Amino acid sequence: MSQLTLSKALNTGLQQALTNDPKVIVMGQDVGGLGGVFRVTDGLQKDFGPQRVIDTPLAEASIVGTAIGLALRGYRPICEIQFDGFVYPAFNQIVSQLAKMRARSHGQLALPVVIRIPVGGGIGAVEHHSESNEVYFAHTAGLRVVCCSNPQDGHWMLRQAVASEDPVIFYEPKRRYWAKDEVTDTPAESTLPLDRARILRSGDDLTLLTYGGMVDTCQRAAAVAAEEDRREIEVVDLRTLSPLDMETIAASVGKTGRCVVAHEAPTFAGLGAEVGAEITEYSFYDLQAPVLRVGGFNIPYPPAKYEDQHLPDLDRVLDAVDRSFAW
Amino acid sequence: MSQLTLSKALNTGLQQALTNDPKVIVMGQDVGGLGGVFRVTDGLQKDFGPQRVIDTPLAEASIVGTAIGLALRGYRPICEIQFDGFVYPAFNQIVSQLAKMRARSHGQLALPVVIRIPVGGGIGAVEHHSESNEVYFAHTAGLRVVCCSNPQDGHWMLRQAVASEDPVIFYEPKRRYWAKDEVTDTPAESTLPLDRARILRSGDDLTLLTYGGMVDTCQRAAAVAAEEDRREIEVVDLRTLSPLDMETIAASVGKTGRCVVAHEAPTFAGLGAEVGAEITEYSFYDLQAPVLRVGGFNIPYPPAKYEDQHLPDLDRVLDAVDRSFAW
Amino acid sequence: MEPVQLLDPDGRLTQDENWPLELTPELCRDLYRRMRLARRFDEQAYVLQRQGELGLWLQSLGQEAAQVGSISAVRPDDHVFPSYREHAAALCRGITPAELLVQWRGSRNSGWDPATYRFHIYTLVLAAQLPHATGYAMGVQRDGTDEIVLAYFGDGAASEGEANETFNWAATTEVPLLLFCQNNQWAISTPAHTQTRTSLHQRAQGFGLEAHLVDGNDILAVHAVTAAVAERVRSGGGPAMIEAQTYRMAGHSTSDDPDRYRDASELDSWKTRDPIHRLERLLEERGWMNDGFRADLEAECEVFANRTSQECKQLPLQDVSTLFNTVLAEPTPLLTEEHRRYAELVASFAE
Amino acid sequence: MEPVQLLDPDGRLTQDENWPLELTPELCRDLYRRMRLARRFDEQAYVLQRQGELGLWLQSLGQEAAQVGSISAVRPDDHVFPSYREHAAALCRGITPAELLVQWRGSRNSGWDPATYRFHIYTLVLAAQLPHATGYAMGVQRDGTDEIVLAYFGDGAASEGEANETFNWAATTEVPLLLFCQNNQWAISTPAHTQTRTSLHQRAQGFGLEAHLVDGNDILAVHAVTAAVAERVRSGGGPAMIEAQTYRMAGHSTSDDPDRYRDASELDSWKTRDPIHRLERLLEERGWMNDGFRADLEAECEVFANRTSQECKQLPLQDVSTLFNTVLAEPTPLLTEEHRRYAELVASFAE
Ligand SMILES: Cc1ncc(C[n+]2csc(CCOP(=O)(O)OP(=O)(O)O)c2C)c(N)n1
Ligand SMILES: Cc1ncc(C[n+]2csc(CCOP(=O)(O)OP(=O)(O)O)c2C)c(N)n1
Ligand SMILES: [Mg+2]
Ligand SMILES: [Mg+2]
């Protein structure tokens, strides 16, 4: 057990994966000597050599495309995409090849490839460096899409992702990279499978669903609501965005009767829409109010000085909570 | 006024656009001598020459990328992507450049580019030739996404798309290309602006929302429901997928209290989710049942022999209608 | 630059000291037989499409030398990444007519187990298989074995970003990859000169790849060049590229109408360079083909054509549950529920 | 191949008859002045970042000759598509410090009107501007004017599919496009030899582009080669590419720590090839720089630095409504409602 930042917890996760399985390969731009721009791969090339920790040419389509080839050869590549906004050159390989290979081969070919993507805003970055594009992949059948929010989950979810026989889009919220918390050396009692959501705080009055960079905001919102309005909010960290853990979600909303979904991505056709639509089908008669969504505005990610306005903050989350109760 | 197939109606729409504005350019793979694989650009190169109707190299990223450059120079390019499944190499140019240029330049740069995409299944095609990927673009702020379903709309929506100052993703349902109907030479009374949905059949009992290749199926479903169950279903052709015409949609559901959304795309995080989530917020107390979604299964598009099962047919639409009434 | 040629259109052997080939009757007969079988198969598949047994067919007509000549020059354990028109190559690897046709019948998206034949499933998204081949070769490199990877692509596909990234990535990583381009002059209706200004092998050289131009309708040249280059790749010489000049003698597919965009005279001129014809001339001239061989081969072709027809028509449909079970390693609750609901609906109609 | 060089690192003129340059004191002083201003600006921006006034800064330190030498060799009405490090080029076009810095301060995503300066906004997605430049040049071609398009990109960006598609598309369409690659040896921590096996101008030649290698720290060579090639492009000679060998003397950005991946000795060796230094030596040796010029320039640099600081700190924020109003030509009902609701919420806290 140690106190680690999310970045370091991911780093030790990769270290373990590389140690445990000689077929695991880490590849991407600047993952070697530099250790990645967020230092998630720091030191790995020194320990495992340039054949297993590969500084690639600057070509995202080929990073994913060659990872597919490596997987066909029996390797388990973990690709790093440097920033969310730079995954699009690889979109063709991800959506038409990586996601579909199992179905296209009628189950004959598995592609255990992990694509790590630092995601979201809140770090004052320039354009294309703060996007939340998870729904493109969530909508794509054949991929697992997950997002961690804290060091312990980051570490263990990454190891589970590497062990998975499915391709996994693995999101890491940038603004949480330097948040520290305990990480266990062996799976803890609380360690969940990759396809389960986590109830972070329980409550009977409203279910607040979120993931990634917004988890912290939502937990603070729940604390404020408890303190100021005596509202007991159940906070759920979705963790898995595709598939969704509807069992956990539906049980919570069945209990509370109210639900707010918060994410950084624009709301229009965002993941909140899916969650809302499914919940409404599951719990139609239990709902006291429609599922409300709080997200980034439906605009291209704005310049850094506007991100505090763009990203849902405590006030906007609480406003949605208020609106739900006022329905 | 003439009886035209959808393919021909689009062709005459392009012809008009090329005639009316010397800045309009048609470009894509095989759009010249061949007239496109669906003959939508048939004869245009002969009439307007290879400088205005351009057979491009086989490179989707550059088709869209050079169209952006042409638009910056004052041209109005209309790109053809040969099939839905081949738009992904251009995803980076569409999502990070075409969609964002206006916002990135704080309103200084407009990109009046139309991207025509034959969409959807039902024609017995091989893999990658039957996909419905509209939600990737609908979720992307900065694009207009529209889908026509009949010759008259195809013709006029295309002309409106070319006239728009915004980038437009223009979907054409493949299985309707050879459907014939009347097309007027001048805008008809019924010709709607690009951002409006169309009520195709009115009814008080349930709202059936759909678009593209599913419109016909839904109209037939409404006819059957009327005849066999005396249920009056209002059928709405969404036409504009982003933005949605919520005014029309909400008015309809406010009246009927029940809603089914049908599309070919997989339901998970599909457009039906957004429509459902919004309607539920608009009409929470009016709804007699949750908004139900009927879509393609949540799988990669299957081999052709399975598409009749995969694509929602009359039975699956009517089943959803039944489930709504049974709620 | 003139393409490497060892056998001219009239079936006369030419000299090229750079590309030695041990010419034996057995080799020539074997290559000839494979080309004949491939063409017969292709004709039969075309007929099956016209009969409505296949949804679509893309003929390999005219490209037999490029495919048979190249695949016969690598080892059976060399992994192959085809595009979608490599029927002749696939047959050489032992893939059956049924396995080849099932995709075009619309019953499956791929028909064979790539591991069995060391032949990847067809890739329809142009150039997308090239990074896969490169990555596979990175794996071979790491495994330290002496296999190589052979990847096919077309003149049209070469315009895609992913094709060019592959030239570059392969060159810098020095993987054992042999890129084989069948320049059949057309990408649907688009002629090669619209795709590229230089010859594609020259482009590959610009990236630092060893690259050669070969007469793709001369099976001896294709075989000799591929064999020599493959051995250089195998022995650590780094990746290489071969451009074979050939011709798509049919339309792009059975949906295509080539009369809309190309002159009949072009086809006529290529007919004089037919790859099968010229090897036949050589066999005849040398007396390497007696009546027995000829008759046997004709018979074998007909048997093969009949088998093709029969196997095609008997192709089974899988149960619809396969669709739900091959999305991920395990079906998700959503897929299970979707499947259940669908089965229920179907059952309700059966009642 | 040796890069074109007209001025060696010690400021001595060398001979190259292929690239004539009319050397005048005025030209040399002008180029020198622009480089000095650009470097002073760059230093000041770096300081501003360290003071917290900018969120991020990417220095152009060391690349002044490549940028000033090239942009000064095309016409003011030639349209330029930069990448994101072309500050020296931008200043040459008259873009103001405020316009340049506002993006890095985080207040806007672009600071200038591209039409005014015929200089497109910065593109941060590597290589994405290259198809735009090509399309713009297709427009010029159709307009029949004699403008050309100049597009900048880096050694790293050259590995992207879109960069290579551009080489090919430009070559086949014969548009008036001049592709200018600043090979500054690094893409963040990745050295150029990891990106490519051949020199990038050789790759471009493989696509059929006229391409040249030039010493990018020799402003006379850059200017002469760019001027000559630009005129060939302008007069219908087809697209061309220039690779300038230069060096990124700073880290990739203010967030980068180059000590993690490169040796100090490398930087030291490039310091001896500093582009400003060598032109200074020439000016001194020829007596083309008197004390008055020197003092004026020092003063001008300091004034410019102060102005840079001041303008930066005074940069206004736009109203948040701009965000909603620049997504599409007209805000949609959804955006209007979102904006309204947000304003309402903000107002409720103001109360
Ligand atoms: C990415 C992509 N874009 C477009 C298509 C549609 N398409 C199928 S085949 C073809 C032409 C391919 O030409 P070439 O690569 O020369 O191969 P050939 O058909 O001649 O064997 C096109 C444009 C596709 N399959 N994939
Ligand atoms: C498509 C894309 N992938 C990754 C990045 C992240 N990134 C920013 S700059 C850079 C290195 C670029 O190197 P080069 O093209 O040589 O330009 P330089 O920074 O040296 O001027 C990288 C990898 C990006 N901006 N865009
Ligand atoms: Mg071809
Ligand atoms: Mg560089």
Relevant terms:
heterotetramer, A: 327 residues, alpha/beta, Rossmann fold, 2 domains, C: 351 residues, 5-stranded parallel beta sheet, two-stranded antiparallel ribbon, 7 strands, 50% helix, binds thiamine diphosphate, binds magnesium ion
Brief characterization of the structure:
The complex is a heterotetramer, with 2 copies of chain A (327 residues) and 2 copies of chain C (351 residues). Chain A is of the alpha/beta class and 327 residues long.
Largest sheet geometry of chain C: 5 strands, parallel
Shape of chain A: globular
Mean pLDDT of chain C: 97
CATH architecture classification name of the largest domain in chain C = 3-Layer(aba) Sandwich
CATH class of the largest domain in chain A: Alpha Beta
Return the structural class of chain C: alpha/beta
What is the gyration radius of chain A calculated from CA atoms?
19 Å
The total beta strand count of chain C reads 7
Percent of residues in β-strands of chain A: 15-25%
Distance between the termini of chain C: 71 Å
Bound ligand species:
thiamine diphosphate, magnesium ion
CATH superfamily of the largest domain in chain C: Thiamin diphosphate (ThDP)-binding fold, Pyr/PP domains
Contiguous runs where pLDDT drops below 50 for at least 5 residues of chain A: none
CATH class of the largest domain in chain C: Alpha Beta
What fold name stands as the CATH topology of the largest domain in chain C? Rossmann fold
Q: What is the mean predicted local confidence, pLDDT of chain A?
A: 98
Total helical segments of chain C: 15
Task: Describe the protein's architecture and organization.
Chain A is an alpha/beta fold and 327 residues long. Chain A folds into two domains: 2-183, Thiamin diphosphate (ThDP)-binding fold, Pyr/PP domains (Rossmann fold); 198-325, Rossmann fold. Helix content of chain A is 36%, strand content 20%. Chain A is built from twelve helices and 14 strands. In chain A, the strands form three sheets. In chain A, strands 3-2-4-5-7-6-12 form a seven-stranded mixed beta sheet, sandwiched between helices. In chain A, strands 9-11-10-13-14 form a five-stranded mixed beta sheet, sandwiched between helices. The N and C termini of chain A lie far apart (46 Å). The mean pLDDT of chain A is 98. By secondary structure, chain C is of the alpha/beta class. Chain C folds into two domains: 25-318, Thiamin diphosphate (ThDP)-binding fold, Pyr/PP domains (Rossmann fold, 3-Layer(aba) Sandwich); 319-351. Chain C contains 15 helices and seven strands. Chain C has helices at residues 25-50, 64-71, 87-92, 97-105, 114-117, 129-143, 161-173, 192-195, 200-206, 219-237, 264-271, 275-286, 291-313, 321-325, 333-350, and strands at 79-81, 149-154, 177-183, 186-187, 190-191, 210-215, 240-245. Chain C has a five-stranded parallel beta sheet, with helices on both faces. The radius of gyration of chain C is 21 Å and the shape is globular. Chains in contact: A-B, A-C, A-D, B-C, B-D, C-D. The interface between A and B is large, with 45 and 45 residues. One thiamine diphosphate (TPP) sits between chains D (85, 124-126, 154-157, 184, 186-188, 248, 252) and A (29, 58, 82, 86, 89).
